[in-house]
Amino acid sequence: MDLRDLKLFLHLAESRHFGRSAKAMYVSPSTLSRQIQRLEEELAQPLFQRDNRTVQLTDAGEQLKLFAQQTLMQYQQLRSSLGQSGPALSGELHLFCSVTAAYSHMPPILDAFRAQHPLVEIKLTTGDPADAVEKIQSTEADLAIAGRPENLPGSIDFTKIGEIPMILIAPSLPCAVRTQVSQPHPDWSQIPFILPEHGPARKRIDTWFKHHRLLAPLIYATVSGHEAIVSMVALGCGIALIPAVVVDNSPEPVRNRISILDNVAGGAPFDLGVCLQKKRLNEPLINAFWHLLSR
Question: Across residues 257-276, what is the average pLDDT?
Fold first, then answer.
């Protein structure tokens, strides 16, 4: 069992999809399958339950997942302590954020960090910001930009870098949805909504539904990623309560096809910030990035 095997296993344990993990880890699906089989042979235990549709961890797989997370974290701490004795920091820093944050908030932070630590190699991964805490807890990312969860785990630290207001958007081109929202007093129960799967934005939407007494809102779809939601609104599929920054950073052809319903309050803004595992603050690279944010 080596570190590469543990990294492959850990990614598969998170993605539950051989094809996605193989692509992300730059190996063929057959190679990934052989590596997992080798681990299973070494441990004399099946690590995954597989069928044509799903991949699930066994009890042995759950135990190995915890072992892999702890081992890889300890190895990273060892590398940091051995390699950062000189005056200049070097190594890899893994960051996670949404596509929108990669445009809106990450560039000035990275510019400042790279100016101070030019030898550090930044590995940036984008995805649904609602997955940020999970990425941090699994050590798939060292730090992540995300909205502050309503219930922040005690093991996670969070530093605020901004506030994100919520806005209600609708299609601007002629369509059935546009006709519905253009009424003097729209019947929100008859208008299709497009929702994020989970995360701080979803909490705001649930609160908005309660405020408007929508006990059974009409849901067109639940989608992973705010950028995809904006595109679906632009296509006339429904309306959405969305962070304003996502609309601000959407491509112009998409922005031109949506409108903001100014007469509808989007609720209180949510805090945007950077999160990490508290116990990793003693690692030099992570500490340097965190210190930069505090300034």
Answer: 80
